[in-house]
Structure formats: C-alpha cells, structure tokens
Amino acid sequence: RPFNIRMVRETADSTTDQLQNRTLWSSYTEIIDVKQCYPNTAIVGLQVDAEQFGGQQMTVNYHIRGRIIQVPSNYDPEKRTYSGIWDGSLKPAYSNNPAWCLWDMLTHPRYGMGKRLGAADVDKWALYAIGQYCDQMVPDGFGGTEPRMTFNAYLAQQRKAWDVLSDFCSAMRCMPVWNGQTLTFVQDRPSDVVWPYTNSDVVVDDNGVGFRYSFSALKDRHTAVEVNYTDPQNGWQTSTELVEDPEAILRYGRNLLKMDAFGCTSRGQAHRAGLWVIKTELLETQTVDFTLGSQGLRHTPGDIIEICDNDYAGTLTGGRILAIDAASRTLTLDREVTLPETGTSTVNLINGSGKPVSVDITAHPAPDRIQVSPLPDGVETYGVWGLKMPGLRRRLFRCVAIRENTDGTFAVTAVQHVPEKEAIVDNGARFEPQSGTLNSVIPPAVQHLTVEVSAADSQYLALAKWDTPRVVKGVRFSLRLTSGSGENSRLLTTAITAGTEHRFSGLPPGEYTLTVRAINSYGRQGEPATTTFRINAPAAPAGVELTPGYFQITAVPRLAVYDPTVQFEFWFSEAKIADAAQVETSARYLGTGSQWSVSGPHIKPGKDFWFYVRSVNLVGKSAFVEASG
C-alpha cells in the first residue's frame, strides 16, 4: 500500500555563509529480508574480522571436487572398477574419469553442447572403452601406481566448442571423428588390425604408384618437452615437468616444445603426456596416401590397417589367393614369394567374419604355394593375403581421413602406428626398432656374436655365428680375426661373407679377438661387435670340494673363471700318490663330468680317500689337483 515519508531537520538555520540551510531529498532504499536462490551454483558464506587482514581485501581459495556427472551404471568411480556387461544406462556420481567428463560437457544443455547434440548423437560405447583404458593403473614414477589418465579442470570462461572439445580429447590421447551418424572418438592405443591393403587393392596413378609416402619434417620432431600442469604439492599452482629423450637429443639436437596438460594434476601423468608427444613424433614419422575403389574400402577413420607394399618392402609381402586346397591346407598365391630359411613366417588371411587372422606357414612346396596351419574358416579365393617375415616389421597405420573423389573412388590418409609406444610411455619399456623394408641404406648392428671351437683332422676350427636386429638387402659382413692382446696383437685374417656365420680353420693354440661389422651396398659400415676366445689347454681346477655321505663321497671341482667348454677327469685312490705323474697308473679312472660320486661298502667313516681331478677340453688337459677327505 502507498506510504508517506516526512523528514525534518532539527538543527536551527545557519546564520553564516559557511553552511547552507538548503536540504535536498536524494533517495531511499528498501531492505527486504528474503532467501535468494542460486541455481547451479555453489555458494559459500564467510564472515571474518577485517582487522585480521589490516583492512585489505582477502583472497579465499577452495578445493572443489566438481560436478556430479553421468557415469555407466556398472561403474564404481571410487574403486575405478566395472562389474558385468554394461547395458548402456547411466547414473549420477562424482568422477574424474576424462571420458565421462567429456560426455557431460557434450550432452549437458546448460554449459555444454546438449542443445545441439543429443545423447544419441555421441558414441557412448566408444567413450566406455576409452574410460576403461583411462582407469588402468600404471606406475606413477614414485614407486606406486595411479590411473593412466584423470581429469581435474574447471571452465572459467566461454570459449569455442571445438577448442574445448580438443582440450578434453588431448587429456585422453584421442581425437573426435564424425563417422556420418554419431560423434565418435579414436584413441591412440594398441588395437587389432581391421584390414590389410596390398598393391592389388589400390588404384595406381599415372606414374605407376599406388602407395604414396611422406615423412614429418625434422623441425617437427621434438626431443624435449616442458609440460605445465596444476601441482597439488605446489599449492595448486602451475608447475613445469621437463621430459627429455637423451638419445634423440644426441641425434637430432635439442628441439624444445612447451605445452599445457589440460586438467592434469599429477606429475606422473604430466611426464607421460610429454613422453607421449616425444615418442609419437620420433617413432610415427610416416604418412601414407592411397586410393581405393568403393568395394575395396573396409575401414573407417581411426581404424588400424596394415600396408603390405611390395615396392616399399623390397620383397613380395602381399597379394591375392588364386586357389585353396582345404585338404592339404595349401594356398596358391598370385605371385612367387621367398621365405627366409630361419625363423617362423606367418601369413594374414581374411576369415569368414571378414577379420584378418594370422597363421603360421608350415611348408613352402613351390614358389607360389604355401601350407598353413591351421586354415581359417571362410577363406575365399581372390581373398587378400599379407606375409609377415621374421626380419620385417609389420607396417601398421591408423586412418585419419577418408575423402570421396568425383570418380567414385576414395582417398585414404593414414599415419604410422607403433603399438609398442604404449609400453614405452606408460611402463618405460625399451624396444629395438625393426625395419619394414629390405631397401635400407643404413647397415644393421651385429648382435649375439658367438664362437664355437672344435677339432678335426688334427687341427682346430672356430665357427663364428651372429645375427642382426633387422634385415637389409645386399648387406655383407666384414670379419677381422687377430691373435694376442694389447701391443702383441697381430692380424691373422680377414673375410667378407653374405651369411651370418663363418668358419676359420687351421688355427694354432692362442688367444683370439674377432670383430664383425655389417657393410651395405654403398660400402658404409655399421656398428661392430667384438668377442674373444681362446684355443688353449684349460686351467687346472681352483679347488675340489668333497662332500661325505652315507657310504659315499662326492667331489665337485671349481674353476677360478667359469668356462662352459671345460669338463673334468676324475681319478680315485685309497692311498696318497706322491708323484702326480703316477696318477694314471696308480689311481682308478672314474670318468669325465662336472662332478663325481664314489659309493660302496669300502667307503668307511674315519678313513681318508684321495681324488685326483684335472680339467679337459678339445685342446688338452691341465695338471692334476689333489683332494682328500
């Protein structure tokens, strides 16, 4: 209802010019005592004494958990475990799993993209698999374990939806992909090969090229990364984690990248994020482009495919099946193949479900025929085959783009995929990189160099064997054999061979050093491998240990330096032999071995017995060593 307000000045009027008597009405304020509502807002009230802060404005920080979001109904966000098979339903719960934080951002109508994307427009099944991957426990760098990826971030300002989506995906090593029906996500993690593509599948251009390759620039291969993350140990301020690859720095130089780990509050996760960037840029440097007919397209963006390019590999690695003999499990191929003499070769075939299956090759009866075990069900004539040999790495790629051309064909772009990268980044594993081609110009390193000494026709032979971590076409091996050591070393012989073994004959007794290194077709030499061996009579045992038993005594000789080529001769006597030259005539010969036991009623307690032991090998015998007990 209306009301009147009357204001009266009680002081008398002023009689001086220093004070005006005029009074003006300015405004009035109504104070209404009501309880306000703050929807979707966390309100905190705090009353403090201003004198405690010297009258200055105080700053208050809060440790918040964040929103209650939708998570799978079979998911326990506290224990990060999944029970049973998910039926697709969701439940409200707190979780810092980045997959379900992303789901909340995409489907929430207030702060997210829920007004433009519905729940049916987002592939929650892909997010379910990504969420499980993020919850797997990995080393945290301090002797414990932690989830592979967590997400703790707050959105303080409005930004473009694509930028926010990219930041969310960067925390999970994934990328968003629109597959034509839903928004799905492809994560950089090991997965099964969807389809192998060979030279017979692709469209050849005017230059006769089917697969076109490109490589990343040297400036894009970073060897050190500074990762900024929110550090709980630093008062939730930003800290920087430096990640380096010393071997890459020696090879390429120091190339630094600075990055922000969005939503990261773990030093271990920040380190893995930086290491993932380094290993991705150093290991996955190759991109392939090719064109397929509409009937040959068997994958979608994000799938892992295998490229069996005969031209790149330098040997025949893929093609089509011309005939199938199910009884003998023999396949007739559309081209002749060459299999290595050592190691197990496998072939990838397409089964009745349209999935590639790897089976062993058990026989090679003809240049264009192979026998496999087992023969997968549903293998058809003119189906694709891809060969995997011990010396060649499988060339795996992840599809990143598919474009439809005007002539009805499809252009595919894929980047190199190294499945070992996960173990390298998350568990610190080390792998020897294997080449995917025989046409390499870098000579391989020599490894596993061994020498076996034997005797034949009154002369000594030395058989050297070695192998290499990868196969290079046209490579040869240079061998250098020297005798003696130090200043007394002299060159005995050199040799060049294309195989991985070589025999030296007519060697006199002595100490030898063998050096082997690879040489490519241009004369460039690889890293050498060196080993030493001796052709000498063995050293005498350093001692003989006698162990008494029940009417038994066992002799175990020991060498000062272990030599696997040395055995021991055992002689036994019930009386001491003063002259070692009389052992063979006075003692009883027991045999040769690594140890020997003598038993019987004549082995009586309180009586001493004598063993005479000497070392033997192909070259000769040592002096006797006496032991009694």
Automatic annotation (TrEMBL):
CDD domains assigned: FN3 (cd00063)
Any Pfam family matching the protein: Ig_J
Gene3D superfamilies linked to this entry: Immunoglobulins (2.60.40.10)
Fibronectin type-III domain: residues covered: 445-540
Coiled-coil spans in chain: none
The protein, known as: Host specificity protein J
InterPro entries: FN3-1_GpJ, FN3_dom, FN3_sf, GpJ_HDII-ins2, GpJ_Ig_second, Ig-like_fold, J_dom, Viral_Tip_Attach_Protein
Highest taxon of the lineage: Bacteria
